[in-house]
Each structure stands twice: as C-alpha cells, then as structure tokens.
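Obj.: predict assembly geometry.
Materials: sequence records (below).
Method: joint structure prediction, all chains together.
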Amino acid sequence: QKEVEQNSGPLSVPEGAIASLNCTYSDRGSQSFFWYRQYSGKSPELIMFIYSNGDKEDGRFTAQLNKASQYVSLLIRDSQPSDSATYLCAVNVGYGNKLVFGAGTILRVKS
Amino acid sequence: EAGVVQSPRYKIIEKKQPVAFWCNPISGHNTLYWYRQNLGQGPELLIRYENEEAVDDSQLPKDRFSAERLKGVDSTLKIQPAELGDSAVYLCASSSEGRRGNYGYTFGSGTRLTVV
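Observations (raw structure tokens):
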C-alpha cells in the first residue's frame, strides 16, 4: 500500500461547479496535511494545509480532514479554467518534517 | 522575499557524464530538501538537511548521488555517472518550522534533467 494515494483522474468539471479531490494516507501518526497545485511544467505551489479534524476554508478552497478514516480532501468552489492543474496531496510522515506526496490528481475545468 | 532559487533550469547530458544542481533556499529556512519528480508522479524525497546536517538520506542512491550543504545555506546535488533513468525534474525546497511543525515547503522552479 502506498503511503499517500490519490485518484490520478483526470477529473473534469464544468466552470462554476465544485471540484472534489480526495486523498488517503496510511500512517496513523501523521499530523500535518498539505495540498499543492502544480501547473504543467511548473513546480508545486502550496495552497492549503490542515492539522485538525474538520474543515478549513480559504477563499474558494476548503480542506477537510478525517483522521479516523485517514482521509483528506480538497473542495474547490466556483471552479475556474485557471484551476486546471495537477493537485498533489502531501502528508507529514514519521519523525521530522518529511512530506510524502501522492501521485496527484489531474483537474480539468471546462468553460 | 526571494523564493527558492535553483539552477540550471534545464540540463541535457550524455549518459555516464557528471551533472550538478545548485539550490539557494529562502533566507532563514533551516531545512532544505531535494526531491525528484518523474513524469506523472509526485515528488520523492532524496535528502533532507537540517542546517548543514543530512538528517534523512535513506532514499538517496549513494553509489552515484551525492549532496552537500556547506555552511547550512546553499546546497548542491551531484550525479556521477548519470544514467538514462535519472532523467527527471529535480526539485529543491525549503521550510521553516512553527509551533505545530512545518507549514509546508516552498519549492524552487526545478531543474529538468534529460540524460541521452
């Protein structure tokens, strides 16, 4: 089992819709969870982090964490074509500040 | 604030040749990481530094890869000799830590290595 798993997609949503991206992780001791956005040919860019169970909102983005289910998700409201990118889930694993990344989910927002 | 600076942006070399990548982290970030990202995959950690000490190099292929971070600031990653399978994007990142741990990494623009 991979440490961090994501559906590779592509996930296609119409402009203005809600995009829902999901991630599961295997290390029950993980405490920190991150979402990165990566445009084609660019490096990953941090968009959200969450430490506590529940929801964390930042503008159009909402991160949701359920530690009991080892599940973290990212909701993007009012999706825009500019949101089209690969979204990487990253989880803090083990001792220290090591982040393990999932393979990413490709999101396509169609206008 | 300047971000994480990497050079070169692109490098094409023949197999068996050496290659080196350079990284300058964000000022004040004591933790520096080298990741490798293959096409269609997420970044994979190669080595992590806390100041000048390599605290996690378990995934660094030590027969051909080496890294250093002199004075706890800039870092270089070297491959010698390069193999075809080393073609990838090499990402440097840095982070600072707060009360609840790290707040996520900031990545540099990466070096795209092509071995032919």
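Conclusions so far: Chain B has a mean pLDDT of 92.
To do: check interface contacts against the pulldown list.
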